[in-house]
């Protein structure tokens, strides 16, 4: 018994001899009557619950474990999961263990992985990190559904965004998803933006319109380098996903489905005009995408900085530190590499 426990037990014993009830004395020192009884035992040096080690009566013997491991690695079962092995054994009138037990043994033996002779699938690699330092360098695009009055029938919004300026450089609404329609849109964008060969990288997800033969052939003809997200990883194309959220959460987004193609195109045109020319984007220091795209943001932000400097000069007591940072963002990154964390061995080297 440790010293503290002995002192507590002695205090309770003194109180009991003086006429106090055991439960009341235990309450005063903050322990239960059961704990007092356990601590009072002469051979109690620790919590007996921590020292109790019991093995289940149905635990597999080492010989049984070896038989199971040998069985699952036989050619007939080597490429099967335990959920497939157990029924096959049952059909042969044999029972060795449950699925859960076989899974547990395989995990303990570090065999709960690809056990087939065929090569396992290679995980999809993260797309190459891209950096834009000016407009018309990196575009992202995607397609989203627009509902119609006919249940189950949708229109398709093709939308291309410049990640540096956040400007919508091109869009179209069609009644179907086709690689040829996307190719026509990119051709039109390159003409309007005067895009030269090998100037733009176009990033998208892995949808069939994005990787269709017509689209890829057109990109090659235009000198545009394609870039693709990993399958089912929306985070690899965050700018387009964010733009679609902005579009569908606009206060004037129609509460009811679009009546038809013309109505949808009219609304998207109004949205694009607002987004490019009126919307002050938080990620580009609250200038409009159109201003950022044409370079007007440099002068606008410089003027804002002068306003703040003058305000601080006129009333310095209101400023405890630097003015707001109005410097334009020089680089915009798409799928940047995560910074490598140095461990102790790297620091020592």
How many separate domains? 3
**Unreliable segments of 5+ consecutive residues:** none
Q: What is the radius of gyration?
A: 35 Å
CATH class of the largest domain: Alpha Beta
CATH superfamily of the largest domain: Ribonuclease H-like superfamily/Ribonuclease H
Structural class: alpha/beta
Looking at the structure, the CATH topology of the largest domain is Nucleotidyltransferase, domain 5
Oligomer: single chain
Helix content: 40-55%
Order of helices and strands: HHHHHHHEEEEHEHHEHHHHEH
Which descriptor suits the 3D outline?
Answer: flat
Topology:
Elements: H1 3-17, H2 22-29, H3 33-40, H4 48-51, H5 62-72, H6 82-91, H7 99-108, E1 130-132, E2 138-147, E3 154-162, E4 168-174, H8 179-192, E5 201-204, H9 208-211, H10 213-222, E6 225-228, H11 238-248, H12 261-277, H13 289-294, H14 297-314, E7 332-334, H15 344-348
Parallel strand pairs: 2-5, 5-6
Antiparallel strand pairs: 1-7, 2-3, 3-4
Features:
alpha/beta; Nucleotidyltransferase, domain 5; 15 helices; 7 strands; 5-stranded mixed β-sheet; 349 residues; 43% helix; two-stranded antiparallel ribbon; single chain; 3 domains
Notes on the protein architecture:
This protein is α/β, with parallel strands linked by helices and 349 residues long. The chain has three domains: 3-51, no CATH class; 62-108; 130-279, 2-Layer Sandwich (Nucleotidyltransferase, domain 5). Helix content is 43%, strand content 11%. The protein has 15 helices and seven strands. It has a five-stranded mixed β-sheet with strand order 4-3-2-5-6, with helices on both faces. Strands 1-7 form a two-stranded antiparallel sheet. Strand 2 (138-147) and strand 3 (154-162) form a beta hairpin. Helix 1 packs antiparallel against helix 2, helix 6 packs across helix 7 and helix 8 (179-192) runs parallel beside helix 10. The longest helix has 18 residues, at 297-314. The chain is flat, with a radius of gyration of 35 Å. The chain starts with a helix and ends with a helix. The mean pLDDT is 88.
